[in-house]
UniProtKB/TrEMBL annotation:
This is Pyruvate dehydrogenase E1 component subunit alpha. The keyword Oxidoreductase applies. GO terms for biological process: branched-chain amino acid catabolic process. One of its GO terms (molecular function) is oxidoreductase activity, acting on the aldehyde or oxo group of donors, disulfide as acceptor. It comes from the Bacteria. Keywords: Oxidoreductase, Pyruvate, Thiamine pyrophosphate.
């Protein structure tokens, strides 16, 4: 059973010690230039099947050319190409067969699918409440996961309790699936806590705002997992994988390249899960890469797969395969979940300054929650009783968030000097002393109160 209570699909484990197959076709030819037509040109083409289930290398080409040794351009269509994405549900919620990944979802019941739907709906409600609270001055900042629920909830449901996650800062869907109380996530965004939850209890590390740095922490942790003898034992309760979530923009950071090197040469049991939401604040993915982001990994010796990140089933299946490979000793996998940041980067951002409403509308029509809803409705698996109880649960969550956040109070500004180092530090102490003396110079001012420290 996963931490979410889902049974695991009928997994086809990788052969222990499976090695990456290397970069597709070994091509050095330049990638075909990206064009807008290729980016938003309608529904994804039929997924290109990887040829080796154990360690399939990424390819956007048709299998025949991917297997070819000729110098074909392997990465057609640029970084936003929708061709070659693993997809099990179309944008309108029809189930499409996939010879490789069907096995990973075969055991999922309607109850399991409703559990995923419920998680996605609740996480979206959390996003809405938190954004409103930021606007009311209760949070300093907030970063929504809006639009990325399927990538996060699908991959999160594939985890086992002993697995360990290293997230960045908008992985609320994974946090929720790992049992983190979402109000604890808001402790960080309110500024009352440096973290907010116990990473060991949840197998879910603290959020990291230094872009890409946690991919190194994850890889190092995964190398430690091997040294602890927790990989390839064949015991499903013991074998452990590590997952790190990061964005398209993060792949331009040196830290991520270093993590890929260490993951590859050490065959670390880590899944490098990149949510390509097409934006790094106001920078489009086309400014981060000329080829699909996933195409980077084979150059490091890491197999990669592109998945439709708005398809919760495909996200689940692809992650389940990658986790199984990691746990069994097959090494790292790079997953690019192609999705879209439907909201602003954070509450400090105004995306209407840099992207078109046509693009936003295109992706609104590909809403990941609506996709699963349509699929469940087509199976007659969304009874009105379930929907009514979910709506009530959402309202209760909203109430819980509002009352909990408002009761958190305000930390003194001087608390920023706490926990900087594990042991006393002369420089920090000097800064604290100066700050406290500066603050006390305002004590005679009318209206001063402890609660004014925001
Ligand atoms: C090392 C570092 N450089 C720059 C920043 C400022 N910054 C915050 S978010 C962000 C964009 C990240 O984009 P992406 O990796 O695509 O993640 P997304 O926000 O889209 O989820 C940047 C540059 C930072 N936090 N850390
Ligand atoms: Mg991004």
């Amino acid at each position: 059973m996963s931490s979410s209570g889902l049974p695991h699909a009928d997994l086809t484990p990788a052969a222990p010690g499976a090695r990456p197959t290397g970069s597709p076709s070994g091509s050095t030819a330049p990638a075909a230039p990206w064009t807008p037509a290729a980016t938003h040109g309608g529904p994804a083409a039929a997924p290109v099947l990887t040829t080796d289930g154990r360690a399939a290398a990424y390819s956007t080409s048709q299998p025949s050319s991917a297997q070819s040794s000729s110098a074909q351009p392997a990465f057609e269509g640029g970084p936003l190409a929708e061709e070659g994405l693993v997809q099990l549900l179309t944008p309108t919620g029809e189930r499409v067969a996939h010879p490789e990944y069907d096995a990973y979802v075969a055991a999922l019941t309607d109850d399991d699918l409703r559990a995923m739907y419920r998680d996605m709906v609740l996480v979206r409600r959390f996003d809405t409440e938190a954004t409103a609270l930021q606007r009311q001055g209760e949070l300093a900042l907030f970063a929504q996961a809006l639009g990325q629920e399927a990538a996060q909830v699908g991959s999160g449901h594939a985890l086992r309790p002993q697995d360990h996650v290293f997230p960045s800062y908008r992985e609320h869907g994974v946090a929720h699936v790992r049992g983190v109380d979402l109000t604890d996530v808001l402790r960080l965004f309110r500024g009352v806590d440096h973290g907010g939850w116990d990473p060991v209890a949840h197998g879910f590390h603290l959020y990291t705002l230094v872009i890409g740095s946690h991919t190194l922490h994850a890889t190092g942790y995964a190398m430690g997992v091997v040294r602890d003898g927790l990989v390839g034992t064949g015991d499903p309760e013991k074998d452990t994988a590590v997952v790190t979530y990061f964005g398209d923009g993060a792949t331009s950071q040196g830290d991520v390249s270093e993590a890929l090197v260490f993951a590859a040469v050490n065959q670390a049991p880590v899944v490098l899960f990149c949510q390509n939401n097409q934006w790094a604040i106001s920078e489009p993915t086309t400014r981060q890469a000329t080829v699909p982001i996933a195409a980077r990994a084979p150059g490091f010796g890491i197999p990669a797969v592109r998945v439709d990140g708005n398809d919760v089933l495909a996200s689940y299946a692809v992650t389940a395969q990658a986790l199984e490979r990691a746990r069994s000793g097959g090494g790292p996998t790079f997953v690019e979940a192609f999705t879209y940041r439907m909201g602003a980067h954070t509450t400090s951002d105004d995306p209407s300054r840099y992207r078109s409403s046509e693009q936003e509308e295109y992706w609104r029509r590909r809403d990941p929650i609506e996709r699963l809803r349509a699929y469940l409705e087509s199976r007659d698996a969304l009874p009105s009783q379930f929907l009514a109880s979910l709506a009530a649960e959402g309202d209760a969550l909203g109430e819980h968030i509002r009352t909990t956040i408002r009761a958190m109070g305000h930390p003194s500004a001087a608390s920023m000097f706490e926990h900087v180092y594990a042991t006393p530090h002369a420089g920090v102490e000097a800064e604290r002393a100066w700050f406290e003396s500066y603050e006390s110079s305002f004590l005679d001012r009318p209206g001063h109160s402890e609660g004014s420290h925001r």
